[in-house]
Amino acid sequence: MREEGSIDTMGSLFAIVAYGHDGLDARAAISNALDEAARLDALLSNYKPHSEWSKMNRLAAGHPVRLSAELFNLLTACQTYSRESEGTFDISIGPLMKVWGFYEGIGHLADREQVRRALSSVGYRNIILDSKDHTVRFANARMELDPGGIGKGYAVDRMTDILRRHGICAALISAGGSSIYALGAPPGQNGWRVDLMASKDPSRSAAKVILHDESLSTSGSYERFFYADGKRWSHIMDPRTGNPSRGMLSVSVIAPKTIDSEAWAKPYYILGREWTAKHKKKGFRVFMCEDRADAGCGWVQ
After folding, report:
1. What pTM was estimated for this model as a whole?
2. How far apart are CA 219 and CA 94, in angstroms?
């Protein structure tokens, strides 16, 4: 039986389509998975003042803050992504997202002095983790961590685990459409058919893929952007320069885990096709749309 459910959380619509032998059991599995998304929003939100993430942001510059094992392990994973991506994945970009206006809405131009000051507060190496005591400390007093590049992917994986524990063998879990996991396959199919949107026209498909026990995450300049000085500025921030990254329209990453596909979509977007081709993770598939007249969309070989 096919069952569906959804919840608005983490600033996105989380939706599940699942198939089960018993409708009641499938509905219970979906309900528990959606509850998990809400729980993680309460843990990871940087908008909710009582979340563990917000408390960490307020206190960690003053002294080491003891974290739950879950949050500590997530921050440890983020540090690994940062090192492996040459710093282009960086959850400390909070101050930059603020000065460019992306916390408030679609964004606005930031002046050079604002960017310079914000950039002085950014740098994943200033997140000091103590594995013995499970604490975090910020070496920079103005640091503010942003979970936006990791939270939804982590949540989708946790939701997938819950569905599996409930015996669900076929489901599609979506976090705002930008991060999804395809569990098994619908009845009579060999996988879940998903369109990769054309970045200049989100209503048009640039490619079609079939997913089976794998994730897909997309980062694109069409998600949040504004026009200024005759240019299109997106929310995908390059932590090395302090400015929105340019040169790419969208990047889609297919990987075994959603936390990985979401985390790597932005470094591949920022670093481009050549770097991605050289450093692409084993088992990953990457589809890029470049912002160049002589380059369209295609798979990275």
Report:
1. 0.94
2. 18
Could you say which of 117, 145, 173 is where a domain stops? 145
Question: How many domains does the structure of the chain reveal?
Answer: 3
Q: Which two tokens stand for residue 283?
A: 């088992």
- Token pair in block for residue 55: 């408390």
- Which residues does 92 contact at the CB level (< 8 Å), separation at least 6? 121, 122, 123, 124, 126, 127, 143, 144, 145, 146, 239
Residue 100 belongs to domain spanning: 52-145
Q: Mean pLDDT of successive 10-residue segments in the chain (301 residues)?
A: 96 96 93 98 96 98 98 98 98 94 85 94 97 97 94 98 97 96 97 85 83 96 80 90 92 98 98 97 95 84 90
Interatomic CA distance for residues 79 and 84, integer angstroms: 9
Looking at the structure, do residues 194 and 208 belong to the same domain, yes or no? yes
Measured between alpha carbons, how far apart are the two ends of the chain, in Å? 39
